[in-house]
Amino acid sequence: MLRENLASVERKIAEACERAGRSRDEVTLIAVSKTKPVEMLEEVYLAGARDFGENKPQEIRDKYPQLPGDIRWHMIGHLQRNKIKYIIDKVCMIHSVDSVRLAQAIDEAAEKAGIVMPVLVEVNVAGEESKAGIRPEDAEQFVRMISVFPHIRVEGLMTIAPFTDNPEENRPYFRKLNKLCVDIRQKNIDNVSMCELSMGMTGDYEVAIEEGTTMVRVGTGIFGERIYSAH
Ligand SMILES: *Cc1c(COP(=O)(O)O)cnc(C)c1O
């Protein structure tokens, strides 16, 4: 079942790339495996997925040793500074940097680990009250502020678009984030590459691809609905 889900998502990605005149290898599919057991991740791994996304540091810490070493783990959720230690030597990218204090703490942990951590700046592109992220109008200044940390490298922008039944409603937000990324890239800020856009989820990844995303984060479309136990 998961194999078929993955194949179906892969096909839709290929078709969206085709429509947009883009090459398939410009888009990375991140299989968002939060709340799912390692057996399901193994199945998706065996079907060919290598990039996995999680939103809880503890979940990466626990799953990491149980799965193959060539998986690229992406930290996509809100990150508290005291949890950085669980993931600093395990993830290939942190998608959710939204404060200078967090950027500084990642920088310090990366220095200790002897690495440079690629990061994305989370932007609240639709200005939703309930969502984390930097305001679009503050993004350039924010990128400049965190670009001084030598053990992180700012590689682009990430957003969680509004939840909607109609993906077309998110097209203007994806277009806006892409433009913001291009605008900041053109400033040629030291230590900032701005080539990556992490936008598009199960409901809207095809539109995001048409609007230039380089990473889509697909959970439900691959693993099925998530069941959160009530505590
Ligand atoms: C859960 C989650 C996703 C995946 O959501 P789906 O709608 O299940 O595809 C993507 N990005 C982030 C940050 C998430 O927390």
Describe the structure.
- This protein is α/β, with parallel strands linked by helices.
- It has one domain (about 1-225): Alanine racemase (TIM Barrel).
- It is built from nine helices and eight strands.
- An eight-stranded parallel sheet has the order 7-6-5-4-3-2-1-8.
- It is globular, with a radius of gyration of 17 Å.
- The protein starts with a helix and ends in an 8-residue tail after the last helix.
Outline of the structure:
The protein has 231 residues and is α/β, with parallel strands linked by helices.
Set out the fold topology.
Layout: H1 2-20, E1 28-32, H2 38-46, E2 51-54, H3 57-63, E3 72-75, H4 84-87, E4 91-97, H5 100-113, E5 117-122, H6 139-146, E6 152-158, H7 171-185, E7 192-198, H8 205-210, E8 215-218, H9 220-223
The structure holds pyridoxal-5'-phosphate (PLP).
Question: Which key phrases capture this entry?
Answer:
alpha/beta; binds pyridoxal-5'-phosphate; 231 residues; 19% strand
CATH level 1 class label: Alpha Beta
> Mean pLDDT, as a whole number?
97
Bin the strand percentage. Answer: 15-25%
Tally of DSSP helical segments = 9
CATH topology: TIM Barrel
